């Protein structure tokens, strides 16, 4: 993957208030740990030789889920133009984990950064046809302007961080 | 409309201006500015709109087939589809599925259309709106005032007061953060406990049975994930053929509506999903027992599909751009500019289609046809036309056998029972002819107190407005008396027909004279033949039959001139907009095309002449003179504001342009008793811009007749048409 989509992705993320942390598979754990808050939940990551540190609870109770400060999940792909990540939810719980914690940390492979919406929808269509039941194009934290001013963190997370695995 | 009805309507509008106007204004303006900014970032905005439009056209064309397909897809996925004929049918099914269990809902206008909450509650269920704005309205027991931001009319303070009174929290809530946090926690519990989640759907793909939900708060995701029965309600028009077809809509919907490039979440759910759900107790349970019901609602839509005029409404993706870009909406909001469920420009089509023409009639007149929404609509719906069609249908309601009596007395093709006010404004051209013929007596008469009182009483013309003064010497008479064009046809670089619109010919004669001199100064030989009036006036009153007759007459009057190689030059932008727009619907395609491509707005024409080498040396140069310019709404829609600015620039004027979508007068609108105050309220924006420090001393110019009338009443200093500014003999 050329450097260009990453640069675009980074500046798009910046515009929607999301921090991008670049790392490699080897460095993943040591990069992630400082990003975690005390109560962290997560779902297993699909990248070979990359796993979550023990501090992350992968089988949370409802209570743990609700009070989690950080939720770590993988994201299927990202859209450089928009600074979006596509969260594909399944039985492991990507959907609740990315939704209930105060901060969502999305882990993504460098090769999964797609340039624009057009290419994303080609991918999405393919995935949906082969059984991806839930795909959420998530851009920045949840937000509302319904209470008289813009507030980050409505029903969903108030913070989002993207961890990019450069070598994947 | 009776005197009392007008009075009541005026009072209601006044009340909304006072109570909700400011909040609505502030918020819609943020959305509207955001739209301009966000769509400007798109590489091919217009191409994207074309794509979106084509997908919707195709969808509605093939709707029965796609419904068939989506049923199959959803059933293959393990869900159920219910096709509901109407609201009652849908509610019967929904309450049966819910079975008295509590329901958590995300925002859905379609569920409001069928009043799903009421029927669920009647069955014993508690229903919770989890979208924060809808929750505010649920607590306040109020109706939405905007289709995307339903509580747009409420300020933070009002919401805080409401919550503090209703929930009596330990610490009174104050900031937007506190209010949000409180609602999140309160609703979080409801979401945890509920077994039934209800959502709408912005789009449903026929090929895979996928719902696309466009949201920002995350509540729709929670309502789906935390419950095990998901009911989605959607109008049948929400289908699109395939997943790939979602792309242009995803790129357009947020930008068009709230001015965001994209909302926080575009959820693509192909239910029933398999995310873990909340069981009894503290464990997350497997999500493989989920139930899914898609309730596809007809409720008048299949009939709209058969209706050549209302069909386009079904392309609407409910983005709200037509509300946000509308000057009237910006000032009163959806509680005035809306019907039983829907609000904003396109609401006329929706209300007439899914509720009743009566519901549409309540607010249809608030559309002035200014056309500012037309370019804003992501699926290119001709929203003003839909408003006009419904207005025409309302005019034709309740015909009686005595109609012929009234009809015999008026030169239009409209039914006798039609509202007298509409009839008066619709026949403006006839009136103008009569007015000039009897001027100045006609002006004295119209200007007297008794006449003003009578006109207000019988025709609803607000007595605070000065009626335009007819001139005894019309433009055509003046032109004839001076011996026609001073540039002979043989000496001319070009030949032009100056279109004598009713206003220029009878009232604002000076701008016509200036136009003649400016054209001649640029070497053009001018003619001003007798040409029928464009039909704009009757059209704006919903008198389509009359407008169509005008179109045929205008074409007949101008065709030979065009064949002889003469350009048609138009001063009044609203007339040019007729030629370029509505005539397509009245004339054979080739005729409309020919008239359109040979017609020019006066300053556009001047611009073209200068660009093609004509010398502007005889025109009056600006020498740095400061000018405050208000273009005309329809002129802007046609993309012709820039030409005036460029000409003035070129001639050395220092131009400041107005920022409002519309001046508020909009033809006859501002004259009407029931709308006078709204019209002035809309105008006040223009007033404050032109009275501001950097504009106060500038010469005021405006292109449209009604804008000039409005500016006359808003400002102390005079205003004129830009062509008068550059008039060599000024
Ligand atoms: S008519 Fe067009 S602009 Fe208005 S809500 Fe529908 S899609 Fe949006």
Automatic annotation (TrEMBL), chain A:
The LUD domain, residue ranges: 54-165
One Pfam match: LUD_dom
Coiled coil regions, renumbered to chain: none
Gene3D superfamilies attached to this UniProt entry: NagB/RpiA/CoA transferase-like
Bilayer-spanning residue ranges: none
Highest taxon, organism lineage: Archaea
PANTHER family the UniProt entry points to: LACTATE UTILIZATION PROTEIN C (PTHR43682)
The protein, known as: LUD domain-containing protein
Automatic annotation (TrEMBL), chain B:
Pfam family, one: LUD_dom
Originating species: Halococcus salifodinae DSM 8989
InterPro entries reported in the protein's UniProt record: 4Fe4S_Fe-S-bd, 4Fe4S_Fe_S_CS, Cys_rich_dom, FTHF_cligase-like_sf, Helical_ferredxn, LUD_dom, LutB/LldF, NagB/RpiA_transferase-like
Keyword terms: 4Fe-4S, Electron transport, Iron, Iron-sulfur, Metal-binding, Repeat, Transport
Any GO molecular function: 4 iron, 4 sulfur cluster binding
GO biological process: lactate metabolic process
Protein name: Putative iron-sulfur protein (4Fe-4S)
Record Gene3D superfamilies: Alpha-helical ferredoxin (1.10.1060.10), NagB/RpiA/CoA transferase-like (3.40.50.10420)
4Fe-4S ferredoxin-type domain mapped to chain residues: 359-386
């Amino acid at each position: 993957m050329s450097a260009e989509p990453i640069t675009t992705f980074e500046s798009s993320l910046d515009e929607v208030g999301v921090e991008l942390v670049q790392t490699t598979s080897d460095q993943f754990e040591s990069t992630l740990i400082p990003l975690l808050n005390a109560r962290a939940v997560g779902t297993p990551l699909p990248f070979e030789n990359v796993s979550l540190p023990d501090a992350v609870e992968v089988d949370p109770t409802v209570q743990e889920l609700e009070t989690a400060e950080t939720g770590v999940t993988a994201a299927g792909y990202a859209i450089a133009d928009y600074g979006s990540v596509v969260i594909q939810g399944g039985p492991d719980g990507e959907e609740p984990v990315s939704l209930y914690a105060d901060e969502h940390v999305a882990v993504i492979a460098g090769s999964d950064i797609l340039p624009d919406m057009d290419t994303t929808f080609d991918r999405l269509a393919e995935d949906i046809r082969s059984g991806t039941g839930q795909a959420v194009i998530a851009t920045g934290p949840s937000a509302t302007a319904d209470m008289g001013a813009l507030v980050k963190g409505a029903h969903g997370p108030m913070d989002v961080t993207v961890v990019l695995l450069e070598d994947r | 409309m009776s005197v009392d009805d007008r009075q009541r309507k005026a009072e209601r509008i006044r009340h909304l201006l006072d109570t909700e106007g400011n909040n609505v204004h502030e918020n819609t303006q943020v959305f509207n500015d955001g739209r301009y900014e966000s769509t400007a970032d798109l590489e091919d905005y217009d191409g994207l709109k074309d794509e979106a439009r084509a997908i919707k056209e195709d969808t509605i064309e093939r709707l029965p087939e796609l419904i068939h397909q989506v049923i199959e897809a959803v059933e293959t996925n393990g869900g159920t589809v219910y096709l509901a004929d109407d609201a009652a049918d849908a509610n019967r099914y929904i309450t049966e599925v819910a079975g008295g269990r509590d329901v958590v809902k995300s925002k859905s206008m379609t569920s409001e259309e069928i009043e799903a909450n009421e029927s669920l509650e009647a069955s014993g269920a508690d229903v919770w709106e989890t979208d924060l704005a809808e929750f505010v309205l649920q607590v306040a027991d109020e109706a939405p005032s905007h289709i995307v931001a339903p509580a747009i009319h409420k300020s933070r303070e009002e919401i805080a007061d409401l919550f503090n009174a209703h929930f009596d929290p330990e610490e009174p809530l104050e900031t937007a953060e506190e209010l949000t946090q409180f609602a999140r926690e309160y609703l979080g519990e409801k979401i945890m406990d509920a077994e039934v989640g209800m959502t709408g759907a912005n789009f449903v793909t026929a090929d895979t049975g996928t719902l696309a939900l466009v949201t920002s708060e995350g509540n729709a995701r929670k309502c789906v994930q935390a419950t095990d029965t998901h009911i989605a309600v959607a109008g049948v028009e929400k289908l699109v053929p395939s997943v790939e077809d979602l792309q242009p809509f995803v790129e357009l919907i947020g930008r068009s509506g709230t001015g965001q490039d994209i909302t926080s979440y575009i959820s693509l759910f192909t239910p029933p999903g398999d995310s873990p759900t909340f069981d009894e107790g503290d464990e997350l349970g497997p999500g493989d027992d989920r139930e899914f019901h898609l309730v596809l609602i007809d409720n008048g839509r299949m009939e709209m599909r058969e209706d050549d005029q209302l069909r386009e409404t079904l392309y609407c993706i409910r983005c709200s751009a037509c509300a946000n870009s509308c000057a009237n909406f910006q000032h009163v909001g959806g509680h005035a500019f809306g019907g039983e469920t829907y609000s904003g420009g396109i609401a006329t089509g929706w209300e007439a289609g899914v509720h009743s023409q009566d519901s549409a009639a309540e607010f249809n007149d608030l559309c002035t046809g200014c056309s500012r929404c037309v370019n804003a609509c992501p699926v290119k719906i001709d929203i003003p036309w839909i408003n006009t069609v419904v207005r025409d249908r309302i005019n034709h309601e309740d015909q009686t056998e005595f109609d012929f009596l009234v009809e015999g007395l008026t030169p239009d093709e409209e039914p006798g029972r039609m509202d007298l006010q509409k009839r008066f404004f619709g026949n403006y051209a006839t009136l103008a002819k009569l007015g000039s013929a009897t001027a100045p007596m006609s002006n004295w008469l119209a200007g007297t107190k008794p006449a003003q009182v009578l006109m207000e009483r019988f025709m609803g013309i607000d007595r605070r407005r000065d009626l335009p003064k007819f001139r005894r010497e019309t433009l055509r008479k003046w032109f004839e008396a001076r011996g026609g064009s001073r540039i002979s046809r043989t000496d001319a670089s070009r030949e032009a027909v100056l279109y004598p619109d009713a206003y220029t010919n009878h009232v604002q004669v000076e701008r016509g004279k200036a136009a003649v001199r400016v054209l001649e100064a640029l070497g053009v030989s001018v003619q001003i033949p007798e040409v029928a009036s464009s039909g704009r006036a009757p059209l704006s009153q919903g008198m389509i039959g009359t407008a169509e007759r005008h179109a045929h007459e205008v074409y007949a009057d101008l065709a030979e001139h065009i064949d002889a190689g003469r350009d048609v030059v138009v001063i009044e932008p609203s007339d040019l907009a007729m030629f370029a727009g509505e005539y397509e619907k009245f004339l054979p395609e080739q005729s409309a095309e020919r008239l359109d491509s040979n017609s020019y707005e006066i300053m556009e024409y001047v611009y073209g002449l200068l660009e093609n080498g004509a010398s502007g040396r005889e025109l009056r140069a600006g020498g740095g003179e400061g000018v405050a310019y208000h273009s005309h709404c329809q002129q802007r829609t046609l993309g012709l504001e820039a030409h005036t600015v460029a000409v003035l620039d070129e001639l050395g004027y220092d131009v400041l342009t107005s920022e409002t979508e519309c001046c508020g007068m909009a033809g006859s609108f501002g004259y009407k008793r029931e709308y006078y105050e709204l019209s002035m309220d809309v105008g006040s924006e223009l007033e404050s811009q032109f009275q501001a420090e950097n504009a106060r001393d500038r010469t005021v110019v405006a292109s449209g007749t009604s804008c000039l009338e409005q500016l006359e009443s808003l400002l102390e200093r005079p205003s004129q048409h830009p062509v008068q500014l550059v008039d060599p003999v000024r």
